[in-house]
Specification:
The structure is a single chain. Helix content is 67%, strand content 0%. It is built from three helices and no strands.
Amino acid sequence: MATRKREQNKLQKTAQTLLEKEGIDFQEWKKDILNKRKLAVMADEDKEWTERTIDEEALKLVMDKIDSVTPAYSSTQN
């Protein structure tokens, strides 16, 4: 089965064009950005990412608990 290569979004294409004009390789720039972000996360310096991740996981937990205690809707209930 053939797989399609994922297309780069327009914002990334524009950033790549701008970086190329400055002589900066987009892939190297991207790798550097991701490495910096990962290091910040591991060092607990990226508070926004931490809060967003905890909020997402808390929402999943709450929804799972609600699903486990709420009976499934039955068409006979009216």
